[in-house]
UniProtKB/TrEMBL annotation:
It holds the Pfam family HTH_3. One of its GO terms (molecular function) is DNA binding. This is HTH cro/C1-type domain-containing protein. Residues 24-78 form the HTH cro/C1-type domain. InterPro entries: Cro/C1-type_HTH (IPR001387), Lambda_DNA-bd_dom_sf (IPR010982).
Length: 92
């Protein structure tokens, strides 16, 4: 099944900018998880998940590794949501 016709696409001139908390929330919601579910999977308290998603506390290395592991993403996706995928691939 073909999702689109073969045609030229124009590269976006601007990209959405996300904070670490917004990226974390988006990744969690894409999984269909509640904060409680992410808490169980990452070992991070629900209250801290909320604070992280609202950019009220710093994420730190230990938390980002636990969250990335739980979400199945590279830690850079959470830490540096403004970077392009290619930049992250080169950095890793």
């Amino acid at each position: 099944m073909k999702l689109h016709e073969d045609r030229d696409f124009t590269k976006a001139e601007r990209h959405a900018r996300f904070t670490t908390g917004e990226a974390l929330r988006m990744l969690r919601e894409l999984k269909g998880w509640t904060q409680k579910e992410l808490s169980k999977r990452s070992g991070i308290q629900v209250s801290n998940i909320s604070l992280l998603e609202n950019d009220k506390i710093e994420i730190g290395k230990k938390r980002v590794l636990g969250l990335a592991n739980a979400l199945g993403v590279h830690p850079a996706i959470i830490m540096f949501p403004e970077y392009e995928e290619e930049d992250i691939r080169i950095a890793s």
